Amino acid sequence: MLPDIQTRNDIQQIVDAFYGDIHDDDVLGRFFAALDLEAHRPRMVAFWSSVVFQTGTYRGRPFDAHVSLPGLEPVHFQRWLERFVRVVDQNFAGDAAERIKQRANQIALIFQIKLGFTGVVAQG
């Protein structure tokens, strides 16, 4: 049985696993080619820690970083969500794990709506 997400180190594990081979992803890789992942990862740990544990450690506007990405389409959000859920499911199970996946789904949906994509639906 897998443990639930309980600590910031657990969030770090998710972030590291998600970004570990992101450059090789044929759908998402190009969006991360110029990104300094070593600088990006701590921000993502702070973001997801704030989501799961309500720490308030993240300061920023995540949508702003995505709005100017050229060629961003619904398929990219789908792939991001698939990767994220797979990483969580491979490592964790429980209430916090379900909460982080649900929040990831909401974020993907909200970003797509804000970007003007039509016909997007939340994943089950």
Search tags:
124 residues, single chain, mainly alpha, Globin-like, 0% strand
Overview of the structural elements:
The chain has 124 residues and is mainly α. The protein contains 6 helices and no strands. It has helices at 8-19, 29-32, 37-53, 62-67, 74-91, 95-114.
Low-pLDDT parts are none
CATH architecture: Orthogonal Bundle
Classify the secondary structure makeup into a structural class.
mainly alpha
Distance between the termini: 23 Å
The whole-angstrom Rg is 14 Å
Number of strands: 0
Q: What is the CATH domain class?
A: Mainly Alpha
Mean pLDDT: 90
In sequence order, what are the helices and strands, one letter per element? HHHHHH
The percent range for strand residues is under 5%
Basic shape: globular
Instruction: State the domain count.
Output: 1
Largest sheet: none
Q: In brief, what are we looking at here?
A:
The chain has 6 helices and no strands.
Record the SSE blueprint.
Blueprint: H1 8-19, H2 29-32, H3 37-53, H4 62-67, H5 74-91, H6 95-114
Helix pairs in contact: 1-3, 5-6
